[in-house]
Amino acid sequence: MQGVGRASTDDMLRAAHAWRTLLDSPEASQQDRARFEAWLREDSRHADFYDQAVTFWAALGHLDQDDLDDAVSRPSWCERFSAWGASLRSARGKPTYRWVAGGAVAAVFVVALVALITPSHDAAREQDVAAVQTDVTRYQSATGQVRTITLSDGTVVMLGARTILETAFTQDRRVVRLLDGAALFEVAHDPSKPFVVEAGELEAQALGTQFDVRSSAGVYRVAVAEGEVAVSYPLMIDSKPTYLLNKKTLHAGEQVAADRQAGMSDIQRVAVDRIGAWRDDRLIYNGAKLSELIADANRYATQPVEIAMGSESIASLQIRGAFNGRDIDGMLSNLELILPVVIDRSQPDLVRIRAR
Question: Model-level pTM?
Answer without folding.
Answer: 0.68
